[in-house]
């Protein structure tokens, strides 16, 4: 698992460095949750997108599927800007699409920061899970 | 079995039969249940009018996946109602399931790598194992004795005894020393064989497990360099052609399993004609194949099109513009209609293609975030899950009128027991 995460980190870092889009976007100095953040209702929509639309490839609990695990633990090992760039522009050569037709760059920043927060979406799901 | 069903037709209405069954279930275990079935059978012979207490058929049952709640709803497709639910199934995003051939049990493949066995008539979870870290679906062997799960993590397939869920084979998709591929497009082939594609290896494998009961290792046949990134596959209803979609290039690959020496052949190569594909927000599913007559209807990846292929010449007959990126392209059981649903952001719509004119003749908006469609066994109705409306809508496939709306929490897949009798489902 450690190896896998390390590999993922490396891949994303390489991608992030090699992709001009990352440089084009100002890297937030602190988690972008405070600055220019989406309205509360849009935040809910984005969280729902994360759970369901991202979840269709990355798993509803974001533990991975066709795409890698993107839960908070994995996301905290990556720079927020790299996550935001991946969401916004996709990763060519992989099934990860660019979401820029559906969200703005600022929303991708917010989502990237949100994804690094300790497991907010996971807890909601856990409360519905009836597993013994 | 036929005889029991014939008897039940003379008994009272379905609802009272079911409640009687429920009482019975509370009273005893499985042994009692099978004794009860014998008694019912005898009762039919001796005194024809006596209603057999356990004559609940499974032919019009189904399961609806409530993906966020780890729960399945048991539904009846004749009465269009929910009979109850089965809980405790874990992460059901992208969950799929296959049926035992009697239609009484379903094997549910959870995203979290769990394989669960549920019993529909009693609405109970009867078995559950953690078989891998991350699973994407499965298949059941022709004779119903083996259930195979396709896994992303660790990449490969694992095969289980369908009675006990004991693992009988573990076949890592090791395409290079130490490298395991994610497995997609798993189907059963005649005999105790399974066929599947290796997303990361550009390969398609056939695993033959017919010798496993006698202690022999599974035999593998590998097709290499089939095309870049096969993402899903289907087997035609006759079991002859295995067709895999390719994510990494424009085209699909087919293997004719009836050929003296089956080989991987490209079809529809370059269907995108060099145009940049759109971002793919959800991988299309080939599994709910749309074979209508001699034509196959296939989702074009990264485009708003359904491709029509002639299955004799394997040439493209045309392409049908649709409302979004197709996810499921499914033929009504008679093949007269093909229904299509779409990836986000166009997933509030469903379109219907008339296979005679090859045109979209209906565009419907049955609800928000349509994730799946399932036809009743003979196709008079289609059930459509609408995740963001928390509902399943039942539509008449001729008049397109809504016949029922059932409540369900974030429903995704809908699976009817008629799949038990269909190859590749």
Report the principal-axis shape of chain A.
Answer: globular
Residues in β-strands, percent of chain B: 35-45%
The largest β sheet of chain A comes out as: none
Regions of chain B with pLDDT < 50 over 5+ consecutive residues? 1-29, 38-45
Tell me which oligomeric state these chains represent. Answer: heterodimer
Low-confidence stretches of chain A: 1-32, 122-132
Distance between the termini of chain B: 22 Å
Rg of chain A is 14 Å
Distance between the termini of chain A: 26 Å
Going by helix content, strand content and strand pairing, the class of chain B is mainly beta
What is the fold-level CATH name, i.e. the topology of the domain at 131-281 in chain B? Methylamine Dehydrogenase, Chain H
Please report the number of helical segments of chain A.
Answer: 7
CATH class of the domain at 131-281 in chain B: Mainly Beta
N to C succession of SSEs of chain A: HHHHHHH
Describe the overall structure.
The complex is a heterodimer of chains A (132) and B (425). Chain A has 132 residues and is mainly alpha-helical. Chain A has a domain at 41-125: Cytochrome c-like domain (Cytochrome Bc1 Complex, Chain D, domain 2, Orthogonal Bundle). In chain A, 58% of the residues lie in helices and 0% in strands. Chain A has helices at residues 2-18, 20-24, 40-58, 72-75, 80-89, 105-116, 120-128. The longest helix of chain A is centred in the middle third of the chain and has 19 residues, at 40-58. Among the domains of chain B are: 1-57, no CATH class; 131-281, YVTN repeat-like/Quinoprotein amine dehydrogenase (Methylamine Dehydrogenase, Chain H), CATH 2.130.10.10. The chains are: A mainly alpha (132), B mainly beta (425).
